[in-house]
Amino acid sequence: MLSVSRLSAERADRPLFTDLSFALNAGQCLHLRGANGAGKTSLLKMLAGLSTAQAGEITWQGKALAAWGDDYYAALHYLGHKDGLKDLLSPLANLKLAADVSGQALSEASALKTLAQAGLIRQSDLAVRTLSQGQKKRAALAKLLAISRPLWLLDEPFVALDQAAQNQLGEWIAQHTRCGGMVILTSHQALPDAIQNIIELDLSQDSAA
Ligand SMILES: Nc1ncnc2c1ncn2[C@@H]1O[C@H](COP(=O)(O)OP(=O)(O)OP(=O)(O)O)[C@@H](O)[C@H]1O
């Protein structure tokens, strides 16, 4: 379980949210909503252990993030606005590198199968810098399938994806939660129908105008 207790954050002396509390259980998907600047990306970074709040606590499996240290990163995928890909490497090489870094075995056949699922088989050997925005996004999202981690933190994952790819990602998220995984995502659009067990959290209601 991921638990957020009385979290408060401010940016440039302006409160983003105050006393924010929620919990996410295995199999659930949290849809973070809110106006531009409400603090969705800021919260996601805190949940990813990349920044800290002014007050409150985040716990993972009952233990505070600070106590987990680097071990926490092995439990999650964080996909932010930047795709986290090496531009000069291919999607295939990026995937293998990500697996190596995470210490998970990934055969060439499995990597290619994942890229095929992501609709990138014909681009698997091209340098990422030559890909379209949507193809780069698909290459980044392929890590979700290739490297098994329980918690997915996804910042606007549907942006730049065409309708088919959005539906595909919806299926991946649905499959992940069906298997007991957890997903927290930001999105300004409605989520694909395939995703069940959605909790909505609107940060606009907590932000100071
Ligand atoms: N490092 C920073 N230093 C100062 N202000 C920051 C920093 N990061 C974010 N902010 C400010 O915090 C507020 C919330 O930003 P954030 O990116 O979390 O919003 P968001 O809800 O994700 O917005 P959007 O929907 O536009 O992506 C904004 O006003 C932003 O300018």
From TrEMBL:
Domain ABC transporter: 2-208
Keyword annotations: ATP-binding, Cell membrane, Cytochrome c-type biogenesis, Membrane, Nucleotide-binding, Translocase, Transport
One Pfam family recorded for the sequence: ABC_tran
InterPro entries per record: AAA+_ATPase, ABC_transporter-like_ATP-bd, ABC_transporter-like_CS, ABC_transptr_haem_export_CcmA, P-loop_NTPase
SUPFAM superfamilies tied to this protein: P-loop containing nucleoside triphosphate hydrolases
Record has Lyase as a keyword: no
PROSITE patterns tied to this protein: ABC_TRANSPORTER_1, ABC_TRANSPORTER_2
Protein name (record): Cytochrome c biogenesis heme-transporting ATPase CcmA
Gene for this chain: ccmA
